[in-house]
Amino acid sequence: MPGATATPNRAAPAEGGLRGRKKRETRDRLAHVATLLFIERGFENVTIAEVAEAAHVSKMTVSNYFPLKEDLVFDAHEGVLDSLARVVRERRPQESALHALRRSFLASLDRPHPLNGRCTPGFARLVHDSPRLRAREREIDEQREAALARALAEATGAGPEDPMPDLNAAQLAAVQRVLQRRVRALIRRDTPEDALREEIEELARTAFGVLEPALGEYCVRPAQE
Questions:
Q1: Is 11 part of any domain?
Q2: Which of the listed residues 31, 46, 72 is the one where a domain comes to its end?
Q3: Which regions of the protein are recorded as binding DNA (predicted)?
Q4: What is the rounded CA–CA span in Å between residue 107 and residue 59?
């Protein structure tokens, strides 16, 4: 996702030096060029060859960086995959997973962030209008939920046969999905910022509040570790 149209903090190959920087720049440029083409013409109506031509590279170069065409749009997906798990790992002393996720979501609303799904109207409409992109986003959501379950299991010391991390991750991830989809829907309608923020804050407090009786005291970080 190009920074101008979607979520920042994109994941890039962990490679340093000049070569690594050039690879990251190429990757970012390909995603940016492709997303602009997709927004203009529709995801299904643009080929990889056309992306390559617009970016002045070979078709093979595009495929080497992005084996899946969909990931030219979701180029930040690696950062998104770890976003919920990272909140759990970094939760404050005496803070539960639920409270950490609620706090982090609300704190993220000022800017595009992997937790909130904020983006430009063009990007929101692009994903909404493409069955392939919606399907890829569901796959990313499933992988993010699995990463959250692993983080919950590690934090609580749950064994491999314990179903609670999976059950609780499913509930927490579902709240995130509902909130992000609502954010996208409001963006597609060009909702004014103040109205969007007010509605999402209220919905977030309601949605996380529904889970409070069951998960408010689950996966609380000890005061000292």
A1: no
A2: 72
A3: 47-66
A4: 40
> What pTM did the predictor assign?
0.88
* Residue 85, number of CB atoms within 10 A of its CB: 22
102 and 202 in a single domain? The answer is yes
pLDDT-derived band at 12, boundaries 50, 70, 90: very low
Q: How far is CA 129 from CA 48, 67, 125, 134, 157, in A?
A: 19, 22, 6, 8, 42
How many domains, in total, are found in the chain?
2
The tokens for 102 are 């609620």
Res. 95: pLDDT tops 90: yes
pLDDT tens digits for 18-36?
888 899 999 999 999 999 9
Together in a domain, 54 and 95: no
Same domain, 60 and 139: no
Same structural domain, 91 and 67? no
Residue with tokens 């983006």: 119
Rounded Cα distance between 216 and 172, Å, is 11
